[in-house]
Amino acid sequence: MPSVLILGANAGIGRALAAEFASHHYDLILAGRDLEELQSLAADLNLRYHVSTRAAKVDVLNFEAMESALAACIAPGGDALEGVILCTGYLGDPEAARTDLNEARRILDTNLTGSALALQVLANHFEPRRKGFICALSSVAGDRGRQSNYLYGAAKGGLSTYLEGLRNRLYPSGVHVVTVKPGFVDTRMVFGKAKLPLVAQPEAVARDIYRAVKSRKNVVYVPWFWRWIMLMVCSIPEGLFKKLKM
Amino acid sequence: MSLSGWGRYPVESCHVFRPEKRSEVAATLASGLQSSYIARGLGRSYGDAALNENAGVMWQVLLNRFLSFDHSTGVLECESGASLAEIIEYFLPRGWFLPVTPGTKFVTMGGAIAADIHGKNHHKEGSFSNFILDFRLLTPSGEVLLCSPDAHADIFWATVGGMGLTGIILNARLRLRQVDSAYVFVDFHKAPNLEDALETMDASDERYDYSVAWIDGIATGKTMGRSILMRGNHAPAAELPARLRKSHPANGNSQSGVRNDLSIPTHPRWNLFMDFPSGALNRLTVKAFNTAYYAVHHTVPRELVGFEKFFYPLDAINQWNRMYGKRGFVQYQIALPQASGRAGLRTILDRLARSGRASFLAVLKRFGDAGGGLLSFPMRGYTLALDIPAARGLVPFLHELDRMTLDHGGRIYLAKDAALQAGDFAAMYPRLESFRAIQRKLDPNRVFSSSMARRLRIVD
Questions:
Q1: CA–CA separation, B420 vs B425, rounded Å?
Q2: Is the pTM of this model over 0.90?
Q3: CB burial class (10 A; 0-12, 13-18, 19+) of residue B32?
Q4: Predicted ipTM of the assembly
Q5: What is the pLDDT along chain A (246 residues), one digit of tens a residue?
């Protein structure tokens, strides 16, 4: 059976993706910070879908241990590892991050530095094998900076650019890179916030992402209509945009 | 966030938390952010049991992982947010079914324990807690206790039926029952009046795993209480028609093959995208429905029915509660003891029929012996459930019914209730003081409370 590594599998879209791939008979390596929770999820997906599942501890903020942690993650699976999906993300507290530089740094490090470093290691794993896919969750927030979450947006924008370059680098080796830009999804980032429109369920988003991986899409907005929303948002002239409350 | 139970009455503003990790539950309790908390699952209790006005609601739906399953004994361990629907989806195709199920599968394990739910087989199997081996309870002090009928038995029996007031159930072990197919052989019996319905049930319910009656809440006089009895047994695979018996290895993954007899019979799923106008279900429309429903059903033996249609007819319509419009409705469910049950049912059905209030769905069944839960609802005798639209004068009317219920030695089901008064509640639940003593010791600082707990002074 092919397997897939999911980084940030414990919650939200990562957890939904784990179930989506399991339902298509993929074995799973579930990675994240909280090993005990991941072990519960591993048991759950094994019981539901009869696939083999394994939990592994990886913290993208632990830069020093990144290579060894990821090596330990992927070594047992060997060449059965078909791809990796990076779902790690941290919206943080944008208000606090104005003055709390540690919070600001955590937002930048989780969404850009840590994510890119993890993918760097994984790219080096797939490239010589000349097959596989790398899929990562960026965000529509990376398409244009807004006052409400510009640190998160900047990091995700950086990640999108990183993925663009990585796709270009890996193209000759046949390793495919998918950039996913979710809109509002009913996860921790959105839950409890004042009523947002067009909130999608993680399971629906996971189905779209699975299809995008299978059909080797380059950049995909989920749900699809965010492509058009962001096209409009991005076409607003900066002179006007800076005056908007968004 | 504004929140209600399934009856959409009452609607209250609550602070909702949706933990995704077990550790978050304890951390939230310890944070002191809210004055009190109540756990909530899929929100199928009808009234204010899972509401906590201006205080904390711990929405457990994402803590729904299956943790282990023993194929030899059928014991499933899962987190409290796992729904009965999920359990059926993944375990019925392997030949396992719920030992006790309510009329909807959209309830969670935690909710099922907290309300000590019953099903159409109560006369044989008792309530849900009979099949709970143990559970882990996060207590108000932050300690996690493994509770079972043997360990911390007092807390176990206070939690079973305890409406979430002893703590938050994190995970539980449930013994599933083995079934041979996803079908039930149902005998339909048309009872022209209440006497006939009760006689028939008393005489022959023991022959059936499941027994329930739809009862016309509007008919009066000689036809008062006319009913359609639906009683059934799980269908053995060998007795199914050939098209349902055959295995179709091509259909699914070839290793296990898909057994048609255990595959889930699917029904069209309808959605109510908008509210009906609040008066749409009125005396006229309900009378027309009831008359038609009674007319189209006949006494038929051994009809083969898929489990969805037999156990969960209303689950086929998403958000069927919208039929009652924005004002919502209450479900009024009572249990009456065997001895005074008939007189009680007659009194209450007569009062309902004369009230001019419409009861679209009325269900009657027999209960077996009461279980060990200190606040568990069932008692040997009968139970009647009525859906009544919210309208002017409803609360005083319900209080009148409460008195009648009490006069006949009966009680109200807390999972459905929205209007009972504290005094009547205390009179209906004789083991309340034992519950309070355990609860007080467990939760001296009142970490757990709900709108219902305050209305009924369950914790005092």
A1: 7
A2: yes
A3: exposed
A4: 0.93
A5: 899 999 999 999 999 999 999 999 999 999 999 999 999 999 999 999 999 999 999 999 999 999 999 999 998 877 889 999 999 999 999 999 999 999 999 999 999 999 999 999 999 999 999 999 999 999 999 999 999 999 999 999 999 999 999 999 999 999 999 999 999 999 998 898 877 888 999 999 999 999 999 999 999 999 999 999 999 999 999 999 999 988
Q: What domains lie within chain A, and their CATH numbers?
A: 3-241 (3.40.50.720)
Determine if the peptide bond prior to B337 is cis (ω within 30°): no
CA distance linking residue B77 with residue B131, whole number of Å: 12
At B197, which amino acid appears? A
Reported as type and span, the H/E element at residue B76 is strand B75-79
CB A136 within 8 A of CB A85: yes
In angstroms, the CA A220 to CA A223 distance is: 9
Token pair for B164: 């979430």
Q: Across the interface, do B90 and A41 touch by the CB < 8 Å criterion?
A: no
CA angle A41, A46, A49 (to 5 degrees): 115
- B110/B130 Cα distance (integer angstroms): 15
**How far apart are the C-alpha atoms of A145 and A153, rounded to whole Å?**
6
What residue of A is the nearest CA neighbor of B14? A192
Contacts of A188 in chain B (CB under 8 A): 18, 20
Q: Which helix (H) or strand (E) holds A231?
A: helix A226-235
Cα of A195 to nearest chain B Cα, Å? 10
Nearest-by-Cβ selection for A48 from B1, B16, B90: B90
